[in-house]
Amino acid sequence: MPGSLVGVTLLRFEDGAVMVAEGRAPVVGAGGAGLATALRLSRSGRRVALVQRAAELRAGGCALTLSGLGFDAAERMGLVPALRAAQPEPVELLHVTESGRPLARMPPDLQHALLGDRPLSLFRGDIERVLRSGSARALSNCRTIRC
């Protein structure tokens, strides 16, 4: 089958370590992109070796907005309800100069009127938590390897 991983895959790391992932598609990093990739591969029937350096999930992190293609991908993966539930309450957007002087303000009701319900703004750690918890069954055939 085109694009499938057959046989043995050797993963080599900077420190010279080598890991064998027999018949598993290697996905490096259990951040948002790695978890989403592992989820899509797993749902398509592939076995996944999820390689992660950090011992635990991050909390918080930078804020990200999913809109357009990002929202479409989350919708196709069935994650929008859980992401929406994890989204913090909207706050006023404030654009400031380099010195901190306010240039423009946009209250939450105006944001909603202009953008509707499609954009989702969350912290990186919340997106990763939703991907991991909402996908536990699909990710059950993943083997997570800490390097």
From TrEMBL:
Keywords: Flavoprotein, Monooxygenase, Oxidoreductase. This is FAD-dependent monooxygenase. PANTHER family: OXIDOREDUCTASE-RELATED (PTHR46865), POSSIBLE OXIDOREDUCTASE (PTHR46865:SF8). Residues 27-74 form the FAD-dependent oxidoreductase 2 FAD-binding domain. GO terms for molecular function: monooxygenase activity. The keyword Flavoprotein applies. The keyword Transmembrane does not apply. It comes from Saccharopolyspora mangrovi.
